[in-house]
Amino acid sequence: MADDNLQVRTEERLKIKIGAAKNLQCRSHTSVQRDVYCTVSLDQEEIFRTSTIEKTLSPFFSEEFQFNVPRKFRYLSVYLYDRDRHLKQDKVLGKVAIKREDLAQYNNKDHWFSIQPVDADSEVQGKANIKIDFENVSNKNQTSICFKNRLVVRVVECTDLTLKNGSCDPFALVTVVYSNGKKVNKRTKTKKKTASPVFNEEFYFDSVEEKDNKGYIEANEPDVEICELHVSFWHDAPGMAGDVFLGEVKVSLRGPQQQKGAHNNAWYFLQPRSGKNKPNSCSTPPGTRLSGENMLGSLRLQIQYTADHVLPLEKYARLCTLLLNSIHTQPITNSPVYILGDIVSNKADIAQPLVRIFLHHQQIVDIIRALAIAEISTLTDPTTIFRGNTLVSKMMDEAMKLCGIQYLHKTLRPTIDQIFNEKKPCEIDPTKVKDPNTIQANLANLTTYVQRIFEAITQSAVGCPSLMCQIFINLKECAMKHFPQNREVRYSVISGFIFLRFFAPAILGPRLFDLTSEQIDSQTNRTLTLISKTIQSLGNSVSCRSAQQLCKEDYMDQLYKKFCTEERVAAVRKFLDIISTNTSQNVIPIDTPVTLKEGIMTKRAQGRRRFGGFGRKNFKRRYFKLTTHDLSYSKTRGKEALCQIPLSNILAVERLHEQSFQMKNMFQIVQRERALYVQAANCVEEKEWVDLLTKICQTNKNRLTKYHPCAFIDGHWLCCQSTIASAAGCHEVSSVDSNNLHMTLDPARELQRMHSLIIAHMQEIDRKMSEKPTNTIVCNNLDQLRNEVWDIEQTHRRYQRNLARETKYGSKQAPIGDDNYLLLRRAMT
Question: Is 744 exposed, middle or buried (0-12, 13-18, 19+ CB in 10 A)?
Fold first, then answer.
């Protein structure tokens, strides 16, 4: 069959909004309230952290995180912590842990989850390869024949064990339980500094049946058989703390498992500890599992999880053609894009893939213009243009965010950084300040920040991306043509996007636009809110006659009057005129460096030799900063750079195999003389740094074609064993398709998202066809869509059946305990 060797990749994305918590337990009778924050983790690996909400038992977070999932995971977990100002370690209050296969049932829904207790014995991850064999061994003597039913256990390896305080020195404890209650323990050697140890150790356990010369069991000799196998994994922690539990596997060995020749070589997911016995348990404290009856409160989450099984791009060719032909369909309201936008209630779900598809084919300007004409032609009031969440407005939001992210950073980043560094109070609401005498000083601080952002925006017109400018030109022409008597519509139609849907949201939520990676405290968050409100009002000022019309809160009236003057309104209009009349198709060069990404990572000292072992003395935490000019690092944020690497010197960026330094999430930045080895904070950060740096070095004419996936240590490359430090690489470098340095486009994935959306709304499509049977264009387009989508769906189903048939339960791809695999098997039968 043609699909037998089909190359299918799975792309997962998570978007989680942490709303609020309620009914948290108080600290004590003397200290009632808590300072609470949340962390988002894949299994036990922290990915994001919220701001801390102080002095409350019902914190309101309202923070949103979204990221591409870089690896397989079992649980999405949200932990709640109480920040302790006096102790070094904050106290964990509880967690919400959702299995990967259960995420779909909560998709796009607000849900209150019960907070569960956190037990150190249940915080496990990883999987283990264990081989189990039975063999019968006979031994004759003068009085009887001894039959030994021998159990052979080989602990082969583990992967992705939990790190404990940043380290993992694992060993395995193999325990056999006999039918008479007896237990026998045997232990592997400890593997140092690795979360993926290879043990390859074999252990033997005997059960004995005494028989007389006639072959009968004596009445006073009961059978003794092996009942159960326990293999637990521990972190070898020296000192008083004792060994730390990492997870366990339990296998029942009764019945058919004891048949001669029984064989079990399988991978298992590690499970939480069910018993309390630990190695050397006489010297270690009992387990700390809490009662499930404890009421720890609730946490409100909204989760959006998508797992796209992406086929090769050619499989979507006809679907892509149908969508692109929407531009030429007259009227546009009969086109597949318009009809799908009408059917899908959440316009953002369909706008995101559509924008990326049309951007990839360089037709985004044309499709937005066609949809804008259709929307504006139905309006009678110019003030309502693009004010709703329609398909074209959501596509504009997405296009601006994709095309204008560098422009946004250049314009807003300096003042945003200043606000975070200075932390000046800007509250002007009398009901929210303790001392009314501070309002005027706060107003002065707020005015300074607003003025700086206002000037940065109005003076940035020449830097506005040409693609955005072309879209603005089309929108202005459409609005002026439909409302020729309204002189303000030429401004309001543009300001509604650039101010209200681009600059203002970025100021309000700078983390969503990568303008900062810092935690946002309540005071800074309030400052950003007030600035965002004022910028929105400035955008609205071009179509309103007085500041009084803009004022919704009395305390903002003074600030509005100060900024919504004729002089500033004229500056806003001049800015809007420039960005909607610049027809140049050339990208305007940016001379000053723009920050693309920054954050704390751990680097290996360059040019130093290691003296035995894999200690961390040569590894230092540094603040990395990537701009459009270079990559640099310093001791802390804002300090002078210790090293600057021009982007032209980066020849390749690749992940580094864990065996090099026994450290996770490491990658290498290859230069001509040496490679810089860097460890990111987590797997998401690693993927983002590697993807961005890889895209940058792809424009380098001297880019390498081969690299070494391991480090050069102790006089040789660990990958190819070459002893020449300057030896050419032994593996091909990764390739990333890219149309633009700052824009990641994956048309196959976006077309798969469209396929999934159409499949999910197939009933609505059928209903639409029955409602308009006389409209042959609509029916024909929908019929073609159904046929193409059904063909793709059949390819998916054949692939899933083949996968389920060929994947063995217990393999590394489907470890025992993999509920996703069991669900797949049931679905295919």
Answer: middle
pLDDT above 90: residue 324: yes
Q: Under 8 Å CB-to-CB from 805, ≥6 apart: which residues?
A: 828
Q: Which two tokens stand for residue 597?
A: 């990404």
Alpha-carbon Rg for the chain, nearest whole angstrom, is 32
d(CA 125, CA 43): 6
DSSP strand E in 708-775: where? 712-713, 716-717, 731-732
328 CB-near residues (< 8 Å, 6+ apart): none
How many whole angstroms separate alpha carbon 728 and alpha carbon 717?
Answer: 11
β-pairing verdict for 263-269 and 34-42:
unpaired
Residue with tokens 């860097």: 678
Kind and range of the H or E element at 685?
Answer: helix 683-697
Distance (Å, whole) CA 790 – CA 171: 51
DSSP 644-660: EEEGGG--EEEE--GGG
Q: Are 802 and 4 contacting, i.e. CB atoms less than 8 angstroms apart?
A: yes
pLDDT band at 345 (very low <50, low <70, confident <90, very high): confident
Residues 6+ apart with CB under 8 A from 254: 225, 227, 228
HEC letters along 414-440: HHHHHHHHHCCCCCCCHHHCCCHHHHH
Per-residue pLDDT reduced to its tens digit, 108-117: 889 999 999 8
As given in the structure block, the two tokens for residue 128 are 């283990």
Among 129, 131, 35, 132, residue whose Cα is nearest residue 90: 35
Report the pLDDT averaged over residues 188-201. Answer: 90
Strands lying side by side in the sheet with 183-187: 183-187, 170-178, 226-235, 244-252
**Beta carbons of 27 and 34 less than 8 angstroms apart:** yes
How far is Cα 789 from Cα 316, in angstroms, rounded to an integer?
Answer: 9
CA distance 670 to 709: 11
Task: Give residue 293's pLDDT.
Answer: 43
Cβ contact 544:550 at 8 Å: yes
Contact partners, residue 798, CB within 8 Å, separation at least 6:
1, 3
What domains are there in the chain, each with its CATH number?
Answer: 10-117+296-304 (2.60.40.150), 127-283 (2.60.40.150), 404-592 (1.10.506.10), 595-609+616-732 (2.30.29.30), 761-828 (no CATH)
User: What is the distance, to the nearest Å, from the Cα of residue 448 to the centroid of all Cα atoms in its chain?
Assistant: 36
Q: Where are the beta strands (DSSP E) in 568-651?
A: 595-604, 619-627, 630-634, 643-646
pTM: 0.78
Can you tell me the mean pLDDT for 649-668? 88
